[in-house]
Design a protein that fits this description.
The chain has 221 residues and is α+β, with helices and mostly antiparallel strands. The protein folds into two domains: 50 residues, no CATH class; 145 residues, tt1808, chain A (Alpha-Beta Complex), CATH 3.90.1570.10. It is built from five helices and 15 strands. The strands form five sheets. Strands 5-8-10-11-12-13 form a six-stranded mixed sheet, sandwiched between helices. Strands 7-6-9 form a three-stranded mixed sheet. A two-stranded antiparallel ribbon has the order 1-2. The longest helix is centred in the middle third of the chain and has 20 residues. The protein is globular and about 50 Å long.
């Protein structure tokens, strides 16, 4: 797994303009391109400060801040359903921890993503969160990463993100497509399996014993 060099933390970036309902003026109006780090790279502290007084979700792509648009109800419904199904298995079997789409995983100096759902085993947590500090960012990828596609999502861009997760330590990635009611399963060996119809999604060695049908995942859609 690639590791990040020690980063000297700078003071949190001050708020840009005024705020209304936790919204930073300038993010949607003129774009996230207005957000710049104090030095050449974004520190963890600066990245975390971006969400301190706004509801906007950010990711770091190629060293640049990208503001993520709000999700539609269908997107949120599937995430909530999958979180419930995964959470019941993870917590009952004490496999590790499950995280929502606001959790940051810093893969490199230029990339920090927030997957829709992520699972981190107790063993991996010691590697990517060595000091156990839950108030910071993970430095590395989760064991399992789940991306639920929105109509505005680019498949090419999402697959690039998935490749980054696998490169930095993920053992399993699911790309869930509500429109086609399919799940694409990606593995570190470069293989991809498209599940549709009456197939089941399994946790393999990452989530031993987990198995759910596509019909259950897309129930009510």
């Amino acid at each position: 797994m690639k590791t990040l060099p020690n980063i000297k933390m700078a003071r949190a970036t001050p708020t840009i303009g005024g705020t209304t309902s936790r919204h930073k003026r300038g993010v949607w109006e003129v774009g996230a391109r207005t957000l710049k780090p104090k030095s050449e790279i974004w520190t963890d502290r600066e990245l975390l400060a971006l969400g301190a007084d706004t509801d906007v979700k950010y990711e770091l792509w190629d060293g640049k801040i990208i503001a993520m648009p709000p999700a539609k109800p269908l997107h949120g419904m599937i995430i909530a359903h999958l979180t419930y199904l995964l959470g019941a298995h993870v917590f009952e079997n004490k496999l590790g921890r499950l995280f929502d789409g606001q959790t940051g995983f810093r893969l490199s100096l230029e990339h920090c993503y927030e997957p829709d759902i992520s699972f981190v085993s107790h063993r991996r947590s010691k590697v990517i969160l060595p000091h156990g500090d839950l108030s910071g960012l993970f430095h590395g990828a989760p064991d399992l990463e789940v991306e639920v596609l929105s109509p505005s999502d680019s498949i090419t861009r999402t697959e690039r993100k998935i490749n980054h997760y696998l490169e930095y330590g993920s053992h399993l990635v699911w790309m869930v497509d509500p429109k086609s009611k399919t799940v694409s399963v990606y593995r570190p060996d470069g293989s991809m399996e498209l599940l549709r119809g009456d197939r089941f999604v399994t946790g393999n060695s990452v989530l031993p014993g987990f198995k759910v049908s596509l019909a259950k995942i897309f129930e009510g859609i």
